[in-house]
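User: Predict the structure for this protein chain, please.
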Amino acid sequence: MAKKQQEVSWQAEEYIVPGRNTWWYVGLAVTTTALCILAWFLGWWTFLVLIILCFITILTSTFRPPRKINYTLSTEGLHEGQRLHKYEDFKAFGILQEGTHYSAILIPKKRLGLSVKVYFPRTSGEIIVDTLGAHLPMQEVKLDFLDKIVNFLRI
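Assistant: Here is the predicted structure, written as structure tokens:
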């Protein structure tokens, strides 16, 4: 008789807040100002507007605290709040450790599909990996180039 798989639920923040000090904000302001001056002198008005919009977006996002999201792994897939990511849309999953934080990354079947990254507490790691492993093969994952840049810039 087949063993019925249980649902696994946990709560985690949607993203990890990187440590930023006063010098990070000073560096952002200086870089933005320098790029604006360059765009002004070269007459690149569209680039100037883009720089200002990027500055406003980055600044606003740094002050927005991450939401707590309820996750559930069921027989259908990963429930992220009210959204369902079906197992059939993914070819594999991997586990990534960034400092003291752990995340599961679902790798899409579609070439240009977006991967899904969810954080989880270390104490729930084994059951989460077992549940995902019952539906998807496990694969080694690494941070891609863009993720490394975002981590380096602490965005």
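The CA atoms of residues 90 and 108 lie 4 Å apart.
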